[in-house]
Structure formats: structure tokens, C-alpha cells
Request: fold
Amino acid sequence: MIEKSLDASLLFSIINLTSQIRLRGDLIYRFAGLTTQQYVILLHLAGDPNIPFIEERTKEEGMYASELAESLKLSRPGVTNLLKALIQKGFVSQMEDKEDRRKKRLYLTEEGVKLIQAIEPLRRKANAAFLDQFSESEKEQFMAYIRRCATYAKDQLDQPADLLEMYQRLPLD
Reply:
């Protein structure tokens, strides 16, 4: 019924790898009472230059929940739930936007900054242990492949007509 294909195997392997990385992160951040997604939100608010969304963004203080949702590819309610926990724990604060008081900007608190400063050396060490199996040129090549795939995927999401047209032709009746 379903044939083995390199394309499908590659995509499922990427999905599997991202799941394993997330679960690995959950083990690392659990000691701080956080999930990987919550820690990634803290990294966004800290302006981590390794996050593609931060790299492309103009340098502004604080972020909107909608920006986090866009970057994390999560629904707005999903991000709101993650933020509630971070605000309750005292790692994130929200303040009215200076130009539009209906909007709230999110900021790291002093406790959030301290937490990142405590975790970052451990995260760097864990990342290095995970990636030490590759040479610098292999990492750069892998990064180039990921960026190419991400650009193509983003283009499909930005202009989904071709993709949708292909699936609309399916005989599902």
C-alpha cells in the first residue's frame, strides 16, 4: 500500500529528530520546572541571536505574544498558556505598550535573566556533547540544508495555492 521512499523517510526522520531534541530539552529544563517550549520563550525574550526569528527581527525591547506565536508556530492560546506559567513563576512580566495601551509587551524579569544565566552554560555543554560528532564544516553544511528546507517550507506556507491545489485533486469521496 505505502512504498518506502527516501523523501518520506527523510521527512519522518526530521520529525523524529525534532521530537527527540524537544524531549531531551524537557529533561534538561525539568530541574527548573520548565518545558523546552517555556525555555525557548525565555530565550526569545532574552534576544538569543541563534533563533532565526530574532535574527530577522528589528531590535526592540520586549515582544508581543503574537510574535512568539509566529516564531514558535503555535496558536495564540497555546502561547498564552505557556506565558501564564512563566509569569506565575516570576520569569516574565508584561507591560502596556507605550504606543497602544491595549497591547502588552513581554519582558524577562530579573529572575528570568538569572535563570538563563544559570542554565546557559549547561545548555551549551549539552549542545556541544550532542553535536561534537560533527566537524565544523559538516555543521555548516547541515545548517545550509536546514535553511534551504526552511525557506522552501515558508514559501509554501506563504503561497499555499500549489500545495492546496495538489491535495484538492485527491479522490476522497
